[in-house]
Amino acid sequence: MSDDIKISIRNLYKVFGADPQAAMEHVRAGMDKADLLEQHGHVLGLKDINVDMRAGKITVIMGLSGSGKSTLIRHLNRLIEPTAGEVIVNGEDVLAYNEEQLRRLRRENMSMVFQKFALLPHRTVLENAGTPLEVRGVERHEWEDEAQKWLNRVGLEGQDNQYPHQLSGGMQQRVGIARALTSNADIMLMDEAFSALDPLIRTDMQDLLLELQEELHKTVVFITHDLDEALKLADHLVILKDGEVVQQGEPQHILLHPNDPYILDFISDINRARVLRVRSVMERTGEPRANIAGDVDADDTLESVIALSEGETGLSYRVLRNGKQVGILSVKNLVRALVPTDASDEGIRARAS
How far is residue 78's CA from residue 105's CA, in Å, rounded to a whole number? Predict the structure, then answer.
């Protein structure tokens, strides 16, 4: 396994029911989720999941309700036991851990941020943030400073002695993030962490996560059903349907090259100009070009280039990364990229048949 792969999931299956091992025979023979439930009374939670999650990156698991995304994240710290497969963390098989090793994994190596905040109502904001260290046996005078540091970092300075019910939803989730950071775990599991928040607060929390990630380089596994959120946060995007991986990869590539009608449904109404980046549609070249209208950054959105060009399709821009030319973007090619993929595309139809 490559040194920069933090978590590796291999051939992971989960079947819920009275006799999952017997049901597995039907799954391995090709039976789908609906038939397994109808004919054998078992629920197929996950089917042959294979995903590598890189250290210091955000892996987003996306899918509709019932797709298996929350089931998958709970396998990483063994809140759910698999029917078959492997979960490798830091080069070790988590499924082989004894109780003491598993406790250490959950306390020291992985933190979790929940959709419903999961704060202790009878404890102050400071005490909630310090819970991971207190559970490890760290004395209060030792964990208070660490908890205070992260509360300040997430914008909750001066809220130490408040109780959860005194805070807004967004502020409560900031406490949840501070608690996860206080643990100093290098892996953060975030299960629909922002889904319960109002849209504007949700955007603020996404920005906060990206800001923290730029600084801390945690390995983040983020669960969502929202494509806009997935495209904003993900370094690596995994899309699930009925417990199976439909497509995974760099989000911009998936948006430009969807391989399944299910994914086409997700991306059909998205504002492509707002989420597509210059690097995804530029011509890759370091060679100088005449008649350049100006410079743009490789990570600029197409929307920003449209504004810059004022809609003039005959213009071309030099694309820079860290001050060095990495490509050329013509506005004409930009406009082509804004046209959604046709659902009747022959390649997609062939894969779907």
Answer: 10
C-alpha–C-alpha distance, residues 181 and 341, integer Å? 40
Strand partners, 190: 113, 222
Which pLDDT belongs to residue 248? 97
| Nearest partner of 132 among 155, 159, 110, judged by Cα | 110
Q: Which H helix or E strand runs over 334?
A: helix 331-337
For residue 268, pLDDT over 90 is answered with: no
pTM score of the predicted model: 0.87
**Which residues, other chains included, contact 3 with Cβ-Cβ below 8 Å and sequence gap of 6+?**
none
Distance CA 89, CA 77 (A): 10
pLDDT of residue 353: 43
Q: Where are the alpha helices (DSSP H) in 82-185?
A: 99-104, 125-135, 140-153, 169-182
Residue 297: partners with Cβ closer than 8 Å, 6 or more residues away = 278, 319, 320, 321
Strand order in the sheet with 283-284: 283-284, 324-330, 316-321, 295-297
CB 119 within 8 A of CB 43: no
Q: What is the mean pLDDT of residues 302-323?
A: 93
Identify the three-state secondary structure at position 110.
strand
SS (H, E, C) 173-238: HHHHHHHHHHCCCCEEEEECCCCCCCHHHHHHHHHHHHHHHHHHCCEEEEEECCHHHHHHHCCEEE
- 5: β partners: 54
Average pLDDT over residues 203-225: 94
Backbone angles phi, psi at 342, to 5 degrees: -75, 130
Measuring CA to CA, which residue among 107, 99, 63, 64 is closest to residue 81?
99
Contact 337, 276 (CB under 8 A): yes
Q: What is the pLDDT of residues 217-261, one digit of tens each?
A: 999 999 999 888 999 999 999 999 999 999 999 999 998 889 999
